[in-house]
Amino acid sequence: MSKLHSALLFAAVGTLAATAVLAQQAGDTPVALTIYNQNFAVVRTTVDLDLKAGANQVTTTNVTSQLEPDSVVLRDPTGKVPFKVVEQNYDAGVIDQNSLLQKFEGKTIQFSRGQTQDGKLITVDGKIIRAGTPGTQPLIESDGLMQFSMPGIPLFPASTDGLLLKPALRWQIDAPRAARVAAELAYITNGMSWQATYNVVAPEAKDVTGPEHVDLLGWVTMQNNSGKDFPEARIKLMAGDVAKIQNMNPRAITGYALDALSADQSAYVTPSVTQQAFDDFHLYDLNRTVSLSSGETKQVEFLEADQIQMDRVYQYDGATQQPGYNNLCIGCHNDQPSFGVASNTKVTVRAEIKNSTANHLGMPLPAGRIRLYRRDADGQMEFIGEGTITHTPAEETVKVPIGSAFDVTGARKQTDFHTNQSGHTTDESFEITVKNQKTTPVSVAVVEHMNRAQNWQITEQSTNFTKRDSTTVEFPITVPAAGETKVTYSVRYTW
After folding, report:
1. How far apart are CA 175 and CA 398, in angstroms?
2. Radius of gyration (Cα) for the chain, nearest Å?
3. Position 462 in a domain
4. Number of domains within the chain
5. pLDDT for 361-392, tens place per residue?
């Protein structure tokens, strides 16, 4: 018995009169699921226990095939019957063809080879010498010959005992007195996950350069690969990076998941999805029961907002595609004239949406994929780009890459370079040109990286700049319609 049971379950006394009980799921209580975006979930349900005084053998099949055995909590939520779980066994070995072959190793069974024209089964006897494993072939003796394959479809006796059709939990429970208990069963299971996806729909526009108003739809996609159907489940979704030990045997339950085991399960009357802060994470409640079958992928809309302001940002980073250019070791310097002088022409475009109440949003947005669509002249939606977002708190900005601009291009060239080895200085100058073939002017952020040495200072510049970080500067410029704008600057490195 795990320490978890010792800490959470009540002690019990009584005589030891052994009784076998099959635990039944309570018919009026739906299963509650808290699904994490890390491929696991907390399952909470109710099972009816008909306990006798003393020792009881209790079995339930109301569990998944990927249950973590030492995460199980079984208790009387009212605290009126202080029963004690003395022993727990979990068997996920659901019967399949390979397990039956292993069960009949050394025995002779029939193998089907099809049917005759009048529908009679054609069979042949075969002795299973070796059932086979994922790394070995089966070995069958048939008609006095050995073969490394089955002579047909194996047919097993219908009266075979000990077949496990569903995963099962078996408990030995001590009860101080006879009682009927609607016990709470909670556990962690692997094989369940969820992710958020967002679709942004922009209106028709022939030449977009500035802010515009768009509609946003958010979807939750849930996947159930736990091996169990949940015909009626009340679902919550946990967003955030919860500490979870992976690939442990036995696997350990985390403190954060324990908090979720005891989370409030009261019913909600609001049909829309709501969210609340939970510990250092965010909990989203679907506020309705959902059917989630094993192997099923289900989507539920959780966010809908319109007239959201979306800004379009152009950025030219002429040196981003140079291998190794952004890597600078502490204390190093590079005085090679050709370092960092290559240029690309692509001006990238991204969409920015402020996640604020004033912008008709303001709800913490879970991480996921976001797609952008725009309506064409016929009113149909056309795909224009996609990206991923991290968990985005309220008042932060969602940034979505759209791609490279077709009509806005850039060029970058080194115009001066010299090094004074005795003075430990390097001076370098660049000219950046951004061209715009659109019919409207565009604002472009020209980004440059100071990567020759740790110490640097811009000594001349044609326009003001802002410092993004210790090695990056940005020159904001406006490029006129059907025109171009140049940026020049000089930088001195010292070491």
Report:
1. 56
2. 33
3. yes
4. 3
5. 988 888 899 999 988 888 898 998 888 888 88
